[in-house]
Amino acid sequence: MSFILYRLNDLISATDEKELQSFLSSFKCSAEPAAEDFLNRVAIKHENNGISRTYLFVDRDDSGTDIIKGFSTIAFKCLTIDERHKIPETIFEQMNVDRGIAQAYLLGQLAKADGVEKGFGRKMINHSFDIFSKGNGMFGCRVVRLDCRDALIKYYESCGFTAAGKNQTGTLNHMIAII
User: Fold this and answer.
1) The pLDDT value given to residue 99
2) CA 58 → CA 1, 7, 27, 106, 145, distances in Å?
3) Which residues, 6 or more positions from 59, have their beta carbon under 8 angstroms from its beta carbon?
């Protein structure tokens, strides 16, 4: 499960635009086509506008070609907590909710490429938590949030997240973890 970690922002600075776009387009994730689309069409724009940071987990094949095994995108995004929340009291007390809003880090995208070994998603989550922990040490914020489909709730619970209710449209589940 080895990998080289690249920050997309560094690649933008160091790589020809067409070459970078070709590299990002090589990522294939049939399980999460929206994540594949994000990497191809949105990630660079979000980097350039300071909206999020994307980290590429890359392997090098025998011929020396870099292959994207997966990626994660992190950002800040507040979480609205209403009085009907489903958050256990022990976690809720650690969230520092002010007027129904909790400051939170967002694990906005998390996807591994087709054929990548089992367990690699957890490795990407652990890396993201390392970054969130550094942020917490520098400027606070203990809540990590992600939004997922119903089918992924059990997986994220096994990674330490807790369900916190549905989004406004009812299509995704808010999941939270405390650093």
Assistant:
1) 83
2) 11, 11, 10, 22, 25
3) 2, 3, 4, 66, 67, 69
Digit-coded pLDDT (tens) for 131-140? 999 998 998 8
**Structural domains of the chain ordered from first start:** 4-178 (3.40.630.30)
Phi, psi of 103 (to 5 degrees): -65, 140
| Confidence (pLDDT) at 33 | 94
For 52-77, what is the mean pLDDT? 94
Alpha-carbon span 142 to 77, nearest angstrom: 13
* Residue 125 exposure: Cα atoms within 13 Å on the Cβ side: 17
Q: In this predicted structure, what is the pLDDT of residue 102?
A: 81
Q: d(Cα 46, Cα 43) in Å, to the nearest integer? A: 5
Could you give the 3-state DSSP secondary structure of residue 75? strand
For 7, phi then psi, to 5°, come to -85, 130
3-state secondary structure of 81: coil
- The whole-angstrom separation of Cα 105 and Cα 101 is 13
What digits encode the pLDDT tens for the residues 71-104?
A: 999 999 887 787 666 787 778 877 777 787 788 8
State the Cα angle at 93 between 89 and 94, rounded to 5°.
125
Q: What is the pTM of this model?
A: 0.89
Task: Mention every residue, 6+ apart, whose C-beta is less than 8 A from residue 122.
Answer: 159
